[in-house]
Design brief:
Blueprint: H1 2-19, E1 22-24, H2 25-32, H3 36-45, E2 51-52, E3 62-65, H4 66-74
Antiparallel strand pairs: 1-3, 2-3
Helix pairs in contact: 2-3
């Protein structure tokens, strides 16, 4: 029985850790040094993948996965020359 409780606790801890993987629009905007509206525009245009949260108002809530944001910086895009 003790083992069962430990495994259940491990699953709960895993769920908590994975929730830290989601970033708010404001967190993404601060990280990229842009306005919240810009991040929302990127999400709506499909330039940035996000999870839409259930809502009942005008503005939809979004969460961006951390690995999506990390992929923007790790892409091998050619550098612009001046």
């Amino acid at each position: 029985m003790a083992r069962r409780k430990q495994s259940e606790m491990g699953e709960e801890q895993e769920m908590v850790d994975s929730s830290g993987d989601l970033l708010t629009v404001r967190e993404v905007a601060r990280h990229l040094r842009v306005d919240d509206t810009t991040v929302r525009r990127w999400i709506k245009s499909g330039a940035l993948d996000a999870v839409a949260l259930p809502h009942s108002g005008k503005r939809c809530g979004y969460r961006v996965r951390r690995h999506t944001l990390d992929a923007l910086f790790s892409s091998n895009a050619p550098a612009a020359t001046v």
